[in-house]
Amino acid sequence: MSTSSPVIPTSGSRAVVFRAAKEVTRILREAEWTFAILGSTACYLYGNKRLPNDIDILMSSHTCDLERLKKFLVAKNPDRFYLVDAKSPRATWKVLWYHDYGVDGRKLEKTKVDILQPGVLQLPMIFSEAIIDKQGFPVVPMSILLLHKLKGWKDNMGAVALRLRRKHDANVRDIVSLLRIVVEGMSPREKINSKRWRQFALAQFDDEFRDGTEQRVKLFCRRFPEHRDMWQQLGW
Questions:
Q1: CA-based torsion, 22, 205, 178, 223: positive or negative
Q2: CATH of domain 15-139
Q3: pTM
Q4: Domain residue ranges of the chain, discontinuous segments joined by +
């Protein structure tokens, strides 16, 4: 999968996301945790044009104590990380944020850091040998990223919260961009054996997610038939 490396912004309101990603990566690597970046930040690192608003981290262990891990990050760099109460009154978790004054030191900028584990949102286990390095950042494989982004599109479509429904158009653009990146990066041999991509991608998830993916791909193709060909090139 070959595409030109995206430019990591060093200024502007979204640059703080990558500074947060860099600091999380540094701390967790020093502590020898296995993890990978997910979501819109991973999409950008693969070559998607849309700059991310926050960062999602997928830990490898489903037994990881996420609240303890958040406190660990704060303890390691209290000048950059801090915790706030979740907005939901019944929430038992804290929300992790990163902030700094940017490169010019004038304006305080911040971004949310979501830490997830396998099983949450039907995310699969992630193993060190499958993690992809993108400009020094550990990123989930494209197969996990694309199919989970597809799930997010479907979930947001029927969401009650307006803020989630508003993500619909951005999700569609992200999915189309990722599809193009995969298809354009495939070798002639890979295109001939395209069903292997689908089989490999689905094998990383449980039966429920696999069944749901088949339905979501069909729905996406019905809604956006102009992109059906790219799904077909991936084995659907």
A1: negative
A2: 3.30.460
A3: 0.92
A4: 15-139, 142-233
